[in-house]
Predict the 3D structure of the following.
Amino acid sequence: MPSDTQLNAIRTKVENGQRLSFEDGFYLDQHADLFTLGELANIVRERKNGQVTYYNVNEHLNPTNVCVYRCTFCAFRADLKSEKGFVMSDEQILHRAEECHSRGATELHIVGGLHHKLPYEWYLNIVKMIHEAYPEIHIKAWTAVEWDWFSRMTGRPTKELLAEMKDAGLGSLPGGGAEIFHPDIRTQICDYKADGEQWIRVHREAHELGLRSNATMLYGHIEKIEHRLDHLIRLRNLQDETGGFQTFIPLAFHPDNTRLSHIPKPSGLMDLRTMALSRLMLDNFPHIKAYWVMLGIKIAQTALSYGADDLDGTVVHETIYHAAGSDSPQELGVDEIKRLIKEAGRVPVERDTLYHEVIRENGTSWKQGRKLQLV
Ligand code: SF4
């Protein structure tokens, strides 16, 4: 650690578990080297989660890529009449859920496009039919942007829709659609869709209904450190209010096939610095995830020493970031995930979506163990 009075004051705060301010975060970004950031983030990581690194056995389902919005960073979406557009049938969706079940996955992560013509009931029915067929699979579905769209379509309040879908089998909300909350950036990259305040409101309502959720931040495009810190502090404020967030996932921008393809993708250095700064600023989030699909396996593994305590899961059938040029594999096997975690000097623990330990009798049959402590 260099002898720098302000940096030393920040270090003392981190060691004492005190909250870092916007100015502290800015100072760290401007003056701390990678190793200092990692060392500080690791203090928080090990205080909250010890040597454990979590993973889960999950699958992704994107029932349609047709989308009314045109986010500049998105390579996944398709126009209504585009040849690239698809809408999965009920049979295809149930087939995918069956595959998820037979592989012993504990979670189905469901997000997609906001289709111009499909009604809210189509989205509701997806949750209902999967839950009825496979009630043991946790359904983590629809980003805040989708919930906002459902409300615009139906004229009904988002909280009422969340409650209805919870009754139908919804287990929790994913953290997508957050991008960058600050309007100076948001209006340039994803104008028209739910803004930062609406995103926060949907998650507040979900938490009030007893649904847990995650949060994300898309970094490495046109935003600056000020916007990233603003984003993290808005999330921290909501977490102070509700305590409903489980995990924060920094998402590295992938430019291929997007309207921002002239911007290079973030470097490994930026990935690790963003991971560490997120861990330091989000002092009330129990978990920080290194999402290997976005980061690549090597950086995700390294991030376990830069604040991350979760590697996500087996994933399978990820299409959103692969469309934007992610060159990570479609799927990681459990043995490989465990090997990566152990090689990083951590202890692998399989969790379900709500951070209960998963106890496996064999590869595919499992039961829920104890609730893992959230600090
Ligand atoms: S990011 Fe989501 S909302 Fe934006 S264009 Fe892509 S699919 Fe649509």
